[in-house]
Amino acid sequence: MSKIRHELTVDLGDRSYPIIIGQGMLGSYDLSPYVAGSQVMIVTNETVAPLYLEQAVSCFPGKTVDSVVLPDGERYKDWETLNLIFDALLEKRHTRKTTLVALGGGVVGDMTGFAASCYQRGVPFIQIPTTLLSQVDSSVGGKTGINHPLGKNMIGAFHQPEAVLIDTDSLLTLPSREVSAGLAEVIKYGLIRDTEFLGWLEESVDDLVARKPGALAEAIFRSCLCKAEVVALDEREGGIRAILNLGHTFGHAIETFAGYGNWLHGEAVGAGMVMAADLSVREGMIAAEKLQQVRVLIGRAGLPEAPPIGMGADDFLNLMAVDKKNVDGRLRLVLLKSLGNAIVTDKADPENLDKTLTSFCRLQ
Amino acid sequence: MSKIRHELTVDLGDRSYPIIIGQGMLGSYDLSPYVAGSQVMIVTNETVAPLYLEQAVSCFPGKTVDSVVLPDGERYKDWETLNLIFDALLEKRHTRKTTLVALGGGVVGDMTGFAASCYQRGVPFIQIPTTLLSQVDSSVGGKTGINHPLGKNMIGAFHQPEAVLIDTDSLLTLPSREVSAGLAEVIKYGLIRDTEFLGWLEESVDDLVARKPGALAEAIFRSCLCKAEVVALDEREGGIRAILNLGHTFGHAIETFAGYGNWLHGEAVGAGMVMAADLSVREGMIAAEKLQQVRVLIGRAGLPEAPPIGMGADDFLNLMAVDKKNVDGRLRLVLLKSLGNAIVTDKADPENLDKTLTSFCRLQ
């Protein structure tokens, strides 16, 4: 059986970079051409290190490779943990010619990218995402950052990697809950921009949940392609890129309410997309059966279809008010004009929003 | 008597910005054209706030202006203090369309610029530097950052302001030690690139120490012009910009050894420039009497001509090894080919360096 392998380029002018997707890449693929200097610092966490750190080190032949192992979890996506990366870099005397490598999920990727963006005012980094969510989401876009007690990802930078290496084998050790969370973002790409991909997902969702390698590689490739297209059109998120936030305004509120790490990001986005579809129905944009179609697909992917019990409409309104997608105090939301076509609007009727929130919130 | 006023543009393509230098600007100059949104957050410190905060607020007619007052001092240039800015922004619900304003010296400028570079992944900022050092140094270049226990300015970003407003009147409340510290950087511009300016400085240094407004405005204008030229040639510090670090490799070692805040940055740079001139003599680049000329000018500016007593050659070597000006482990230094012409080299003879260090270090 031949190895499945895809490659694409994220086209950002002089900051363009490749995404290499395949089976068995970790430990065999040579990433040293993407390292300008002689020093490499691999940043990973205590869950991923025993599984893949050794293989990752061997991707950098001829380089001096150090590593730093962070605690695992969204709740550690803070300054204190970020500082462990700076401590390691300075203790090992890494110069401004060093290259950082993120080996792990979205938290490791966001923190490593942010550390790279501000260590000595900016050094290069490479991503080796090992969760489905990070493979289809943070591989493309250059968003990096940490959380603040008053909001998620409030402190960060745009910083593009030199290359992204995705090994589908790394998904075999992933908890199924995290596979589902990754599928939320995969489904999102179908919903916002690609009706044909959405159809393929409705056919293939069971294969994806069962982690069939061919289906996974295809889903990752098409998701990265979709996101790369959108990001190339709008690198700094002034316009169309905002459609990538489908379900995220509701989702971030859910994550904050639940406490970081209790709901996975993808789970919150899954429920958030159902809520966005519901509001789209109330706004007269899509038919009620389309909402049902979204809800069923989200459910088949193993994702929650509603926010946590106990979260009220007021909780949403308060938490969404500080969300960074707002401009000059108006609530901006991504809604569905049809399945496969999302738009950004700050004109949703507040009464419809209330109805959506009320219909989804179960206080006990 | 007509008001002294200069204006120049730092030419960085679509990130170009003006520097406006004059008397009585604070409280009268309208900066609101440089604010895209409706929110402004002025960041200042407890020393500057009682003197100039009210006047600064009135530079933004028609805007919603909040402020945050930080503790004063280089020792607060850390994450904890930086976080006070994020706390204020989030508590007051500043969106990604907010504009930050740095009102104060270099520490306030560096921290505010860094906060702006990473709040919600980047918002604009304006500088109102109130110390001579920050007026002639951090006004130009876009360097922002904070310190790490293992090194100065190790965490930061390049982030250009929308505009810089310099009021020479703000120097009237500055301690004389800080005027001298600012003159170290002014003298540096003469030494690295402008023989004619250096001559003017030798004539005018007493007027500058005496804070004659015309002399100060001229020195600030010419310093900013010189730095703007160098930075425009090399925004990301790959090449010629490194000459701006004359005296800084020795100077950073002195600051770290003395403990942040005990020696002012400019004082350390003053002594560092004398050391660099000394090494330039030993390397056969300039004559011994040129060293004397530098030493005399530094002394007349009220600056120390040698490192602190108790600092040894080994202290220098250890502290300079982690300096970020090093590439792949080699020590890079800025030396003087002549007075008015600096070069960057990693080829200084280690024995000459030892002789310079030994001749300046007084262990008791």
Largest contact between chains? A-B, 38 and 38 residues
- Which strands sit side by side, in order, in the main sheet of chain A? 4-3-5-6
- CATH class of the largest domain in chain A reads Mainly Alpha
For the secondary structure, the number of strands of chain A is: 11
* Whole-angstrom Rg of chain A: 20 Å
CATH architecture of the largest domain in chain A: Up-down Bundle
Unreliable residue runs of chain A: none
- Report the order of strands and helices of chain A: EEEHEHEHEHEEEHHHHHHHEEH
CATH fold annotation of the largest domain in chain A: Dehydroquinate synthase-like, alpha domain
Would you tell me the overall average pLDDT of chain A? Answer: 92
The shape of chain A is: globular
Helix content of chain A: 40-55%
The termini of chain A sit apart by: 52 Å
Number of domains of chain A: 2
**Structural class computed from helices and strand pairing of chain A:** alpha/beta
CATH superfamily of the largest domain in chain A: Dehydroquinate synthase-like - alpha domain
Oligomer: homodimer
Largest sheet of chain A: 4 strands, parallel
In short:
Chains A, B: One of its GO terms (molecular function) is 3-dehydroquinate synthase activity. Chain A is 43% helix and 18% strand. Chain A has helices at 49-57, 79-91, 106-118, 132-136, 176-193, 195-209, 213-233, 248-258, 265-282, 288-300, 313-321, 350-360; strands spanning 5-10, 17-22, 39-45, 64-70, 99-104, 125-129, 143-148, 151-158, 164-167, 333-338, 341-345.
